[in-house]
Amino acid sequence: MPSLKELRGRIAGVKNTRKITSAMKMVAASKLRRAQTHAEASRPYAEAMRRMMSELAAATKGQGDAPTLLGGTGEDRVHLLVAVTSDRGLAGGFNANVARMTRQVIARLQGEGKTVKLLTVGRKGADQLGRTYADILVDRLPGTAGRDVEFGTASGLGERLVSMFEKGEFDHCTLIYNSFVNAMTQTPVERQLIPLPAPEGANDNEDARASDAPQYDFEPDEGTLLARLLPRNLQMQIYAALLESAAGEQGARMTAMDNASRNASKAIDQLSQRYNRSRQANITNELIEIISGAEAV
């Protein structure tokens, strides 16, 4: 049985841990409100732009001069997966969920005979996936380290993907990240970036819907306009995903630190009970020794 001194040391240690987890919870909660506001504000713009570009992809389908970012290379051999995680831990299963989905997607694609390449954004994703998939890992990019997400980060990643695509390094590009639902729920999402997916329901009654499809007139011309719109859309989709991931990270960390603080309080109560029982037993033994000694005299 541990001594009273050891129990006091354990209680003090757990109390210090609770102070740290409580402070981290408050910091995450303060960051969450700002990150959530940014993520929710980006959704309408990103969704509208994604829908418009998907309709453009459907409208220009089959045209020989359609930009490649719309229709892709026409091949389905090499897939690039971009896994977005955080740079810091202590966020529950936030990073593990992205890593798990990434492994599942890699296993599915490789099972279909596809060549898979992996690019990680965030240190935790590189740590978890880099050991297993070192042979297919293209690069390890840093995350936001808990800071506000700047558009330049998404712009740089978008330019990197466009450059890789133009060099023929992949045919399909998919982004895997955590979508923010609320402080307790972050859902891993698999979103195709290149080529742009067709609008939902585009394959249903295609002939009947052809007359209802939007018609676009391009000014100055289709090539010039889409050459600027497509990279911008790619950067915007990445930016929205990074904002979702940042909000999810703070929500997951706040929830994890709240649970840790609660568990620390329970551990303190249990250790305090053991300490009081041990102290009471020691006092009782001392009294018995005193009484026994007095009776012997």
Please explain how this structure is put together.
The protein has a 5-stranded mixed sheet. Helices cover about 60% and strands about 15% of the residues. Helix 3 (about 95-110) packs across helix 4 (about 125-130) and helix 5 packs across helix 7 (about 220-295). The chain is of the alpha/beta class.
Which SSEs are present, and which pair or pack?
Blueprint: H1 4-59, H2 68-71, E1 78-84, H3 94-111, E2 115-121, H4 123-130, E3 137-141, H5 151-166, E4 172-182, E5 185-194, H6 206-210, H7 222-296
Parallel strand pairs: 1-2, 1-4, 2-3
Antiparallel strand pairs: 4-5
Helix pairs in contact: 1-7, 3-4, 5-7
Note the main attributes of this structure.
Pyruvate Kinase, Chain: A, domain 1, alpha/beta, 7 helices, ATP synthase gamma chain, elongated, 5-stranded mixed β-sheet, single chain, 5 strands, 297 residues
